[in-house]
Amino acid sequence: MKILAIETSCDETAIAILDIKETKTETKVSVLGNALISQIKIHEQYGGVYPALAKREHSKNLVPILKTALKESGLLKTEKTKTFSTKDINKLKTLLSHESELFELICGELPSIKTPKIDLIVVTNGPGLEPALWVGINFAKALNFLWGIPVIPANHMEGHLLASLLKNVKNGNFTLKKPLFPMLSLLISGGHTELVLAKKWGVYKLIGQTRDDAVGEAFDKVARMLSLPYPGGPEISRLAEKYREKHLGEKSAYPLPRPMLHSKDFDFSFAGLKTAVLYTLKKISLNQASAGSGEHSSKKNVLAKITADVKESIACEFEDSATEVLLSKSERAVKKYKIKTFSLGGGVSANKQIRHSFEKSFADNFPETKLFVPSQTLTTDNAIMIGLAGYFKSDKKVARTSLSRIRAMGNLSF
Ligand code: KG4
Ligand code: ZN
User: Fold this and answer.
1) In terms of CB atoms within 10 Å, which end of the chain has fewer, N or C?
2) Which atom of ligand 1 is closest in space to residue 353's alpha carbon?
3) Is pLDDT above 80 for 331?
């Protein structure tokens, strides 16, 4: 089955074209085309994703990356430019009434593109930023109108979950073997921290989640406090690694709490950890002031005086705290539910310390449980995972959802 997948839930505009084949033992996923434009540089100055800007960028990016992905797949066939009829233009205008830039690009570029040989379009309908999700959804609807290819929605978090089960066999070719159940997945991203239990294929139950900030959000906010660029996760990780190289085995001079480590449930909380970093920074500045500098301790002054070593120490302690809580709750859930397969997924699963800690714990404590950690390129948002999530739904009821009922659902859950 050839699938065109569209992802616009946050700050990555992505389109992938997949050819998915089922054999007796596994699902073979060939990535025929994969185009992605990251908006990180654009949002950097705001220290986080700015929804109206994300929407505008998706509107600008979708048509160019559609062409790139089609070309890469060998599916871009052009014909002498025809023009759309007035009726077609009016229909597109209605569909894209909130995405005027996308409407212009479609009218300019799509008339010359022949309908590609694709069986299904899959588009993320949530969770995510609603204005951003709508751009992808309306684009999918416009393609359905022009090409007559069916469209189905996919859950972004299910995409992250499935991406971690993919094994890279050769450049652009993956396989997915059905895991043993029960399976537990820890999904950690900029918007989510979830423990998801699956007793059988495609049937999920959320057994734990964050009560406030997502772990990636905490990484980003702490990075901001330390004047590190957005996204903060990789920056914190870089500093923490430096610290460990220099101070192997040493206890941090700036201890931080392990929120909800001993709570009986499988929920998380990261807002308190982030605030604890803030208090630590304030305390350092007060100590410096009472040591006689006499200067007003503005944020700039505080940071100017925090040595690189102190920053690295705080980053390391923060990363250790987040890792410990994530691992400890996961271990308890693995024992309680007698888990046979465990997977890590989402942007934060790119974090080396988290990956190593899980790998070590599973090797030492749960040798019978198969651990899946996604390849680095599949940790952050992409459209391959969306195509995959759609593929496994394509024979289900959702596949028959009428087009008009596909809507952006910012809080879509499992
Ligand atoms: O899954 P994702 O790409 O987007 C969402 O769906 O949110 O995740 C983005 C998050 C950001 O918070 C980013 O800081 C975090 O993943 N992240 C990391 C690392 N790489 C990305 N966090 C910790 N360590 C990393 N190496
Ligand atoms: Zn994501």
Assistant:
1) N
2) 24
3) yes
Ligand 1 pocket test, pick from 161, 189, 356 with the greatest ligand atom count within 8 Å of Cβ, gives 189
- 86's CB contacts (< 8 A; 6+ apart) are none
Specify the amino acid at residue 234.
P
- Strands of 218-257 (E only): list them: none
User: Distance from the CA of 163 to the center of ligand 2, in angstroms?
Assistant: 11
Cα 355–Cα 358–Cα 364 angle in degrees, nearest 5? 135
Question: With a 6 A CB cut-off, is 155 part of the ligand 1 pocket?
Answer: no
Position 300 pLDDT exceeds 60: no
- pTM for the whole structure: 0.94
Q: Please provide the DSSP assignment of 11-76 as one string.
A: SEEEEEEEEEEE-SS-EEEEEEEEEEEE-HHHHHTTTS--HHHHHHHHHHHHHHHHHHHHHHHT--
Q: What is the pLDDT of residues 343-378, one digit of tens each?
A: 999 999 999 999 999 999 999 999 999 999 999 999
CA dihedral 208, 209, 211, 213 (to 10 degrees): 160
Of the candidates 178, 192, 199, 125, the one whose C-alpha atom is nearest the C-alpha of residue 392 is 178
